[in-house]
Amino acid sequence: MHQCQTSGAYVIRKLVRRSTNFQLTNDLAQSQDAESLKQSTDSELLSRMKCDYMVYFLLVGFFFLIIIILLNKPGLAYIEKDEAVDEIPASLTCKWPPSTPKDFYSEGGYNITLCVRLDPRLSPTRKPKKYPLSYVFRNWKGRSIISFEELGKLSRRFWKLVRYPEVYRTYPQDVPLKQIVKAVKAGLPVTDMPQYNFPIRILKTSKSVCSNSTKHDLVIVVKSGILGWDARTAFREFMQREKARSANLHVGVVFSLGLPRKHGGRLFNREGNIISLPEISGDMLEQFNGKEDVVMERINKEIENYDDIVLADYEDTYYNLTWKTVTNLRWLSAFCNKYHANTFMIIDDDHRMNLSMVAPFLKSASTETMRKSIFGFVGNVDYAYRSPTKKWFLSYREFPWDLMYQYPRGFSQFIGADIIDDMAIVSAYTRYNYSPEDVFLGMIAFKLGIDLHNVDSMYDHTEYAIRNTGRQPAMVAMKDYFG
């Protein structure tokens, strides 16, 4: 009798230990044992009844333990079932990409925020997904579980044992993206709503590039700050000469801009740290601080004179480059012909390309590879910059791991035509407010299983002088190397 009580209490204590989400402290202290069951001093009949009750609760507890383990096992938290949404009629307008840009135009511009519907049979709220510590870290024996938000609070000693690439899968949102992409394209409801589907509207777009029946062998999107009119003028002059040298390659060029910053000048609050944006970017912000009308007057003249600007309504600063990247993906996806060209090019306005090398590059890989991959200068061993006063600072809250997943460096990429729609959709399911735009692209590629290909003739900033000691021709490099 007493043996039954003692063993039952022991098993229940084990169940409580295994099913409790341990309170994370500096070193993730173990939770205390559940209080031992009081031993009965009543009659033998009462003790036998208690023993029976313990067996009953033991079975119930075991059942719930199995459920908890299954729900927190990576890959099983969301069950992919196409039939869960197939019974609901598809929408002709609430889908991505839209059939035509007119479908998402309203007074004032094009709303490129994704239109997504939740399966009405599912809850709109989800608890943050949690992962066994043994999944994220090596040599962990316990059953403790942890969320992405909690990872950044862990002692750094844990990170010596981190599992790559498993830890990257915790980056929000960890949902069945292939199923969701398929549903959004078809106009069907989804199992999970996007948490990063921030409102973005394109206010102006080109009438000569990716408009109506225009066709180009290559569309180039130039990332340019709204105050960079001198850089855009220099880029236009360069492209005029470059197009004349490669007349057989029909190239379309647009500049991607946001709106002027309303206040703050060159100062930014990054995770509680005040950062002063250096160099010309910061100087221009100071010079035009509070002069939105003056800035927009110049931009509107550029639009009228050149018809080569895609203007969106996010605040255009260095720390909003991910917003610019999301805008670029959505614009390419919604406006451009993805059948005539196999890839699209994105480049910073302080870099240049050699079109005589770009033309053969476009044929250097199979059509399938070119259409389904990202090409660029791939960063394979780049680490997070933790100095809180520097421009490139990343906090542990933003990226708790130190080694970034491989990504195409931000100065330039070629993105395949067959993956641009998927990336435009998944951008709403990938965490950002501030995130380095190239690291953000890498996380999207990781989530979708997109191949990244390194191109030796693409040089990031000072890399040309460092890597190309023989001064071989560059397909992409800083403007200084093109004379």
TrEMBL record:
Enzyme class: transferase
GO cellular component terms listed in the entry, alphabetical order: Golgi membrane
Keyword annotations: Glycosyltransferase, Golgi apparatus, Membrane, Signal-anchor, Transferase, Transmembrane, Transmembrane helix
Subcellular location: Golgi apparatus membrane
BP GO annotations: protein O-linked glycosylation
Superkingdom assignment: Eukaryota
Transmembrane portions of the chain: 53-71
EC numbers for this chain: 2.4.1.-
Pfam families, sorted: Galactosyl_T (PF01762)
Topology of this chain in the membrane: Single-pass type II membrane protein
Record protein name field: Hexosyltransferase
